Structure formats: C-alpha cells, structure tokens
Fold these 3 entries.
Entry 1:
Amino acid sequence: MACDTKPVYLKVFNFNTPGWETLTSSTNCATSTDFTLSSNITADLSYYYSPGQYWVFARVYQDWGNSTLKTDYADISFGAGAASFLSLGNHTAGQETNKFEISENSLSNPELYNFKLTASGGDVSVTSVVIQLYDIRGFVSSDITAPKIYLDADNDGMVDGEETTQVGGTGNVSISGSSGTITFSSSFSVSLGDHNYILRAETVSGIDPGDQISIMLWHQDITSDASGTSGAAAPALHMRQGGTSGGASIGTAGQVYSPISGGTEEGGEEIGGEVPDGGDEGGGTPGGGTELVRFIIISFDF
C-alpha cells in the first residue's frame, strides 16, 4: 500500500508516558518501493529505555489491513549529545535603578529587575525560576501583583510596546517577614546565545516612606535540563526615603523658640513697674518685686 494513501510511521515506546510516541512519518513512497525513515532523540533519553534493562522498543507502523511492511535495515544507537550549559549574568543594559523614590504609594507596571541568560552547546529547557527577595521592609505578598518576565529583544533595559514575549508564566509572590520569593513555574526554552530579560509587575502598592525591597537571582535558583549552570545577576534595591524614628521626622531638626523680649530682672512697665523696697510682710520674694522666669521651648514636628 502506497504511503501517500496511508502514512507510514516510525514510533518508539516512551516509558514515561507510557505509550508509543511518533518520531517521524512518510507519505512519499510507492507500493513495493524502498524508502527510509529516520529520527533522533536528543532530550530525556531515560524515557525511552526500560527501567533497569536498557531495552529500546521501536516499530514501523502503517494502519492498513493485511499489508506487509518489510525492512532491510534497522538500527538504534545511543550517543552523547552536545552538552548544553546555562550561564546567568547581568543584563546588557545594567540593573534597574530605584523605582520607589516617589511621592505616591503605588506604581503601575514597574520594571524591578534585569538579568541575562546565555545558552551554550545547545538549547536549554528551563522549568522554573525562583527570584529571591530580601531586606524587605513594609511589604506583604499581596502588595506585588502579577509579576512577569519579559524577553528584552532590543536589549535596551526597557519593556517597549512591541516587546510582549513573556516566559515562565505569571510569578507567585511569597513574602514572610523580611524575605520572600517570586516563583515562575512554566517551562520555556533558551536558545543558543545571549538573551536579556526584565522582571515587571502589574502593580506594586503599599509603598510608604521607609519601605524597601532587594531583589536578586542566583544560578542555583534556575531549574533546567542543562548539564551545568553558573553565575548570578547583580541585586536591585528599591527604597522610599523617609519614615519616622522617635519624635522628630528623620532629617528634620527641632525648632527652638525664645521668649518674647521685654522687661528685665530690674522690672519695667511691662513687668509691673519699679522694683520696690523689701516689705515687712513675710513670705514675699526677697527685694519685693516680681521675679522674671526665663525659658525656651523646644518642639519637634511629628
């Protein structure tokens, strides 16, 4: 039966699924004519041999009644593929600067962190990325919404209007006290070469004076099928200046007030006239007159 009528498939058994997996097929053959089917498997090789026995099961299959398929040659071989490696480093445009130096207490679409991934020796499949949060003051998990990682195609350190490619899915924010994480759990591929990425949140709220958060990514927090990983990206610090400590506002000096002038210890019209001579009546102030009390008031702005 010609395979332009019924395709011929080359299949291999996947013990992870488990089930037969199609590697390739052909619709370009005539009846009683030789043709070749071939394919390579380069990832997750352990899925394709029986556990503990290293048997591989393959078949050539055509769904057509009693027709007979014959093969002159069949070969299955294993070999070491090119070892892929994933390196983490600083974004080409550098790290994000402080985004919390603002007068409001919320931001929309703030870009919070930059990093670069470099795949060598072959493409790398990344299954999770966990970005570390530390030195946190004043934030809880719900203050950071819908964080996403964008591919920075033009490497300028900004998510431009045409840059809509996201990787890793929407991050899950978890903050407990002064530390936390943003976890991205959707798989994505890093093709051979350098790729710059930007972490951007939909909103960050509750940014009060004195609040801050530091962000960093280490290679140990990236899970992939690479034979090895290395590197880290520089940290980013976002902090809103201000806050209070005790009484006066931080950075604000207390004001010192002097009494209104007028009058002396010797008395005067505003104080009550001349100082009289001492009287006979006991209990008076020595010398008779009114005593002037000097004072200052120190006040602080709260």
Note: Residues 1-81 form one domain.
Entry 2:
Amino acid sequence: MPWGRHSRPRSGILVQVAGVRRVGVMNDVVITVRGEHEVRIPPERAVAHLTIRAEGRERGAVVERMAALAEPVREDLASRAEAGTVIEWTSQRVTVWSERPWSPEGRRLAPVHHASVDVTATFSDFAVLSWWAGDVAERDGVQLTGIEWRLTPETRAAVEREVATHAVGVAVTRATAYAGALGFADVAPLEVADVGLLRHDSADASPTPRMLMARASFASESADAPAVQLQPEDIVVAAAVEARFTAR
C-alpha cells in the first residue's frame, strides 16, 4: 500500500452468523458473515471556509463595506493561485438581508441591513495555510469558519478500492473458519453486498466504503507565529460488507 508509511491501518471484524442451514441433498450449509476494514490516511488537501460580513443602517453602505472587505481577500487568493500555493478558490454571490430588531421596551427599531459572502480556498501546503489563516482571521469582518481535511480524488478512489477488497477478504476468512469448525473443507460465495442489503430491513444499513472528513481544531499562538495553529487529523476510510457462502 503506497500510503503505508503515513497511515495507521486498523482492521475491524464483526462477524454475524445469521444461521447455518442445510441445503440440497449433499448436506451443504449456508453461512452468513460480515467483514469490515478501515485505514487512517493523513490528509492531502485542506479546504478553508471564510465568511465575510458587514452590517449597518444603510443598505448601500453595507454592501459597499462588505465589497471593500472582500476585495483584498479575493486579490490575495488570486495571487496565491497564480503562484501555485493555492490549488483553487471560489467566491459565492453576495447575500443581503434586513431585519428590524426590538428594543428592550418592546418597540420595533429601524432596519439593520446585513451583507455576507462565503469564500473557500484549497491548500496542499499546510504550513502556508497556517500562516494565511492567521492573517485572514485578524482582518476586520472576516471569519474563518472551518477547515476540511481531504484526500485527492485519485488517492480516495484507490484507498476505497483497497479497503473494500480487504473487507471482502475478512468475510471470506471468517466464513472459511466457520466452515472448518463445522467439518467442511470448501466454501463458495453466494452473495456479497453492502451492510443491510442482505436483510429485508435497512435499519443498520451503512454505505461502504465510506470516508469520514476531518475538520480543523484551532489554538492560539504567540505574536511571532501564525495566529491559528492547524492540527490535521487523519481521514478514516472504512468499508463493511455482508456475504453468504455455501460450505461443503
């Protein structure tokens, strides 16, 4: 596995014997088992989410203020994208809304207008991300709302295939062990499916393989270091299958 040096693989096995029943005239039995496998992979990408906000009594002034706050962030990301330190970035449409707050005496006050825009940026260099996040977090009207840790699509697809293959292998191993305990030498597969699809009810159904995204945690640092310390968490890729075998 090309990720073995950086990942912490862990195999989880949960075997459910739904029943052993004899079939045909040769006294074969059907064995139903479940196999699971998961690996933990260090993230390769980080997607930063920003929200830029402004508010005030005059709608036009609020929109202008929000645009003035957003423009330096966009220009910075565009220059970083040209330099190759940002893989991609997006800026959503501006959202504008108004509300009329209540006074402590129960009177409706003058409208307050709000404007906001969401921005995302994808980084592959987490040290660059840390310094950038510390800078934007100190800007007026800019809030760093979160970081998503991800794998590249190529890595994710390869790991999902590997994890699913191992989960099926676990099911085969368990079925073979049960068959041997019953005095049978061979097992042949009848059905293999995601968890829940071999039963009529789907209460315990879960997709497989599945990838669990990790989000960032933040910590304060000294004035000479980035204002935001990012602590990437491993991404868990897991698969679970149910399988039926004939033992003879």
Note: The radius of gyration is 27 Å.
Entry 3:
Amino acid sequence: MSDDADMAEEQLPLESAGQKLARTREAKGMSVADIAAETRIPQRHLEVIEAGDWSALPARTYAIGFSRTYARAVGLNEGEIADQVRAELAHATDDEPHRPTRFEPSDPARVPSRGLAWFSAFAVILLIAGGLAFFRGYFFPGSGPGSIVEPVAVAENAEVAGEGSEPSIQTASTNPTGAVVFTSLEDGVWVKFYDGAGERLMEKQMAKGERYTVPAGVQGPQVWTGQPEALSITIGGQQIGNLSLESEIVRDIPVTAEALVSRVAENTAAATRQAQEEAAVGPADNG
C-alpha cells in the first residue's frame, strides 16, 4: 500500500459521509423523501448513500455527484463530503471495476434546462395535435382538411406494405405490439438487460445506431443504464420515444411493450408539468 493510501486510511473519520448526511438531515427534521423531492435524486439512491453501500451505484462519479448534491441540500460543505466519499471509495472492498464510467453526467441531479423544457412542451403539443387530427379523420371522414400527420400515421403492421415503407410514428391512439427494439442514439451507451430472475440477457456499451431486440418469451425483462435519454424504443416497428427525457440512472425498469408505452406516457406528462411550472415562474425571474 502506498504512503498516500496509508495517510488516507489514518485520517478516515469514524463517522462515514452517509452517516453525517443522515444525521444532518434528521437534525433539520427532513425525511429521505424530502431530500429526494428537492434534489431530484431517486430515494433509493439516497438510502444507498446513507448506508455507505457505494457498490450499489454504477460508478464512483455518481456516488460523488449524488453525495455533493445531498450535502448542498442539507447545508453541509459539499467539497468536504465529496473528499470523504472519495476516501471511502478508495478503501471499499467490494468495488466492481467492470462497470463502465463513460456515461457519467457532470451533475447527476441536474434538471433539464428551460430550453429543453420548452422543446418538450412543444413536442407534446404536436403529439396532441396529431392525435386529435387522427381521431377527427377516423370518426368524421371528409370533414375539414386532411390530417397533417397522415403521411406517417400508418397502420400497426405497416412493415408489410413494402420494402421501402417507413415505420409509423407512435401516438396515444395506437396500442403497439410486436418486437421491442432499443436503438442507441450515441456512442458508448452502457446498458444491461436481464430477466425477472436477474439472469443477464445482454450487457455492453452500444455504439451509435446499434440495436438490441428484447427476446420474445423472456419472463419479466428489465433494463439498467445511466443514459436512458440515449436509447430510442420501437415496438412492432413503431417508434414510441426514448426510455427517458433526461440523463439519470434507471434500474429494474420493465421493458415489455405495455410497460414501455406506459413509461413513455408518464415521462411526457412529467415534462409537460415541469414546462408549465417553469413558464409560470419565468416572468418573476425576469422581473
């Protein structure tokens, strides 16, 4: 062991970083749920930090970034907490070096920018307009101008129409079935797929444009990744959106067709609510 490591071990405080954060949180009368709501860090990760179980996080930078944000929320010196977490990580005995760190965000607790929120709101409006146009043409054929989304809103089995046909765009009016396919939108996207029993189906860093089809018949397929916003989903040839609208750690997420459609709908609704909240406080900020 090097002299630096010996010195770090001698100076390691008796109270761990997680214990210090938990003690300070309790002294302020705050619950773990309160911290999760303020920092946007999942509650399960906050509990892992307080327990000092760093191996439950995909990479050391997540441990340091989450702890720094936690410290800021409870009024502790975030630099000191980050240094203590680094020291604890250096002495951890259950490190998993095979876990990639390429997909780490600079601040895992960051929220989407105002520009991204407005873009998401605009996308939701277009999606709603497309759905209304679709229903209008279905129930009242011939009334008013044709739907602006008609060229891309093809039937559920559009892939059999011809070799050059494009996949349909997913809207709330469809109920897609068929193969679930994930496509990487960036290089180096680490992802792990596994079944309900925890048996690994696939684990790697996907290249940009690389696809993975969830095997049919697998019981309870799930996914774990740190870049859900870089994974596009198609079901039966229909694109339904991305696994998430922001960079975050997601784990044990079901990847059946029904679960993914529900998740994308929830993400879209959450983005709409956030955009509305930011729009409401915008004038106050400018003033």
Note: Confidence is low (pLDDT under 50) at residues 100-109, 146-173.
